[in-house]
Design goal:
The protein has about 260 residues and is mainly β. It has one helix and 24 strands. A four-stranded mixed β-sheet has the order 3-7-4-10, with no helix packed on it. The radius of gyration is 21 Å and the shape is globular.
Length: about 260
């Protein structure tokens, strides 16, 4: 069963309806289990599938889908939207675990435009790219809420949980023990640039010899990996906000808005 909570009240005979940004859709799966999954869906208009059955279509950004009374087993989630790459996750619920997830999706065709040499910002952007230093363990990138640190070492992307130990994400923990750092990606080719994606702390953007990609830190179950630009050869980027990327590839400077 699904349900949307939309508070409403009457004032002077008129009905005012407030639609909050985080509409809650709750699925009760039956008795016997105590586990739960809380999924935050980033895009309005996304179809949510739980155990291969469509449960809802989101009406606003940042909508929440919750499945409760889950027994210990593996569950599948899919978030799909026309024109976007699907987000897929398999979750192993153990010992009445309560798991919180956040989906994300990129357009299959990312808007891009070439930045020409006569652009007033061309030289500055090019300088930022060429003089950029790839994050290493000693100069790791820190998420906006200071919970994550990420860096590259020998073409391997690492992530470290720097937040409260009691709030360590489940995917840092295996068999009841939690690691302070995990491997996000072992790249077969050279990594040249690394950044957090938009306002997310759990999704990264990197550039290597094969292109520019977004990847989630969470490797448990299915690790979602989506392309921004496929290339061949050394590729670097510069971004200030994790949403607008200036990408240098084969002498061409491109601007991509995610």
């Amino acid at each position: 069963m699904t349900r949307e909570n939309r508070p409403a009240w009457a004032v002077g005979g008129l009905v005012a309806v407030l639609i909050i940004a985080a509409v809650l859709v709750v699925l009760k799966t039956g008795s016997g289990g105590k586990g739960s999954i809380e999924l935050h869906i980033s895009e309005a208009g996304s179809r949510v599938f739980f155990e291969n059955k469509e449960k809802t279509t989101t009406s606003v950004d940042s909508q929440t889908f919750t499945a409760r009374n889950l027994r210990s087993k593996n569950y599948s989630l899919i978030v799909a939207k026309d024109g976007f790459w699907p987000w897929v996750k398999n979750i192993d619920i153990k010992n009445s675990a309560a798991v919180t997830l956040s989906s994300w999706s990129l357009p299959k065709i990312v808007k891009q435009e070439e930045v020409l040499s006569d652009d007033e910002n061309y030289s500055e952007i090019l300088s930022q790219i060429n003089n950029g230093i790839l994050a290493g363990e000693g100069n790791a990138l820190v998420s906006s809420d200071s919970n994550f640190k990420v860096w590259v070492d020998k073409n391997t992307i690492f992530a470290e949980w720097a937040g409260e130990k009691t709030e360590t994400p489940y995917y840092f923990c295996d068999s009841g023990e939690c690691d302070s750092r995990i491997v996000v990606l072992d790249s077969a080719s050279n990594i040249y640039s690394l950044s957090f994606f938009k306002n997310r702390e759990d999704v990264l953007v990197f550039a290597n010899s094969e292109g520019v990609y977004a990847i989630e830190i969470n490797r448990a179950g299915t690790q979602n990996f989506q392309p921004i630009l496929r290339t061949n050869g050394e590729t670097r980027f510069y971004t200030e906000d994790g949403a607008t990327f200036f990408i240098l590839q084969n002498g061409s400077l491109l601007k991509a808005n995610l």
